[in-house]
Amino acid sequence: MRIEIRTDLGQTGANTQTLGELRPGVTQSLLIYDGRNVLFRAVVEAATSQSDDIVPVRWDAEPVQAFLDSQFDARPFAFILVEGDAVYVGAETVGRILDRTGVADSLVEGLKRTYAIAGPPVGRVIHGRAIADLDGTFPLSDAAAAHLADLRREHGIPVRENDADGR
Asked: Looking at the predicted structure, is the pLDDT value of residue 67 above 50?
């Protein structure tokens, strides 16, 4: 996050912001993930436990569904990161999270390619559904931004919770 206040020779301060930075008053990014599987809950716990500014939110939470409807006019089943004025989806989410942790660019690109190739079959086998054929970085719509406060109240990862199948 970078919000700069600049004052040049008596001019009033200006809030400069670029895509992916947080809107004023927004302090946390939201990571939307499938929380039904214990393995994915553990992976998200590991990925977010080192960061105070990424809040995990389960895909099946009602506020997430409302956000997705507003952002995409659909409810795509995907790994999504909402950060500032940007919504990262699929391999771009993987890349953005790894970039934030300082992973080498070559490894980030390799893992993004792996996600793009392995994501669809993994989705069908582990999640029981295909992941959305949606990948990239999208501007956060005003309608979807209206749901962010509700999303921030829905965070938490029940890592020790059983799956629907009792695993």
From this structure: yes
Alpha carbons 129 and 50: distance in angstroms, whole number? 30
Q: Is 74 helix (H, G, I), strand (E, B) or coil?
A: coil
DSSP string, 100-154: HTT--HHHHHHHHHHHHHHHHHHIIIIISSPPPS--EEEEPPHHHHTTHHHHHTT
Residue boundaries of the structural domains of the chain? 19-152
Task: Give dist(CA 105, CA 94) in Å, integer.
Answer: 12
Reported pTM: 0.73
**Beta bridge mates, 156:** none
Whole-number Å distance between alpha carbons of 123 and 77: 9
Radius of gyration in angstroms for the set of CA atoms belonging to the chain, rounded to a whole number:
17
- How much is the pLDDT for 35? 83
